Amino acid sequence: MTERFIESLFTKPDEPFDYALRPKALIDFVGQEKVCRQIEVLIKAAKMRSEALGHCLFSGPPGLGKTTLSHILASALNTRLVVTSGPAIERPADLAIELSKMKEGEILFIDEIHRMNKTVEEYLYSAMEDFVLDIPKSTRIPLAKFTLVGATTRPGLLSSPFRSRFFFTSRLDFYSVVSLTQILERSSQLLSFPCDRESLEEIAKRSRGTPRIANRLLRWVRDFVSVKAGLKVSKNVVHDALHMLMIDDHGLDEMDFRVLHAIVHQFGGGPVGLHTLATAVSEEPDTIEEVHEPFLICCGFIKKTPKGRESTALGCEHVRRTLSTRMSP
Ligand code: ADP
User: Fold this and answer.
1) DSSP codes, 173-204
2) What is the residue with the minimal CA distance to atom 21 of ligand 1?
3) Does the N-terminal peptide bond of residue 271 adopt cis geometry, omega within 30 degrees of 0?
4) For residues 209 and 252, is the Cβ–Cβ distance under 8 A?
5) Which ligand 1 atom is the nearest neighbour of the CA of 19?
6) If one looks up domain 32-171 in CATH, what number appears?
7) CATH 3.40.50.300, the chain: domain bounds
8) pTM score
9) Which partner for 10 in 53, 62, 128, 168 could form a disulfide, CB atoms 3.0-4.6 Å apart?
10) Contact yes or no for 171/61 (Cβ under 8 A)
11) What is the dihedral of CA 291, 292, 298, 302, to 10 degrees?
12) Which atom of ligand 1 is nearest to the CA of 111?
């Protein structure tokens, strides 16, 4: 179970736990300062003109706050947010049902928008631009001026005509340790689980720059502490708790390490193609591309070249150090 811990955070639906910790307003949304300042302008302008917000597209790896920002937008504008996902809108008729229910200024949030059927995507063009839906063998459906907010982990898979119809597009980046520590401070207060700063920093360092992971690791540490009677949180306890999940001091989990190790040892540092790599570590190519690779690149452990994935000197060193610690008694 441990080697899939990180991956499971990206595939499992949000639990009530996540909702409880989700910031409700921009003021509680930590980090991503540039995006937040831009969103503040968008909100103020929409309010001043009493107009619907322009269509927005948020991209970036899972767990960085795309959904959270969409909820914040709706609540700042005091409007309804309808949540759906790309794979859920299978046919143009599904889209027509969703859109015809939208009232002026309301927000339709489509998560994983890159996974939407291409035919459906094309019907969205006129809906976004002219607020009408032209479905063959059906009447022309006029729509209220709604706002579409899309979230995607793979912006490159959206066609350029589609992307160009968004008024505002923004990419969320991995968070710094300082920002994650701040997020964890807030979460530990909300969970009534007081932690010293050093312990929170230790969790932050191993959270892959991702708030969702930081919060889940905090929860794991809380569980770890509560089952070990008499234990108080400390940096060492955090270390032990995360060691049990096989998360190393860089935040790499077992599968991250296997990917890196395979590139370094099995493929002599690369370049190696995605599918060959996926077979070598028995993992889905999509998962490697969406979950493991972005973080290994962010750590500077691998790089992507036109010929495939290659390890860097830093990556080789990390493998060497990890193996020597594992072999030492
Ligand atoms: P995404 O939609 O990008 O996958 P979410 O918006 O669902 O990510 O974020 C996952 C969780 O991480 C949220 O429930 C929230 O608790 C936390 N979170 C995300 N971004 C922030 C942030 N900037 N500040 C505080 N908490 C955050």
Assistant:
1) -PPPHHHHHHHHHHHHHHTT----HHHHHHHH
2) 65
3) yes
4) no
5) 14
6) 3.40.50.300
7) 32-171
8) 0.88
9) 62
10) no
11) -150
12) 2
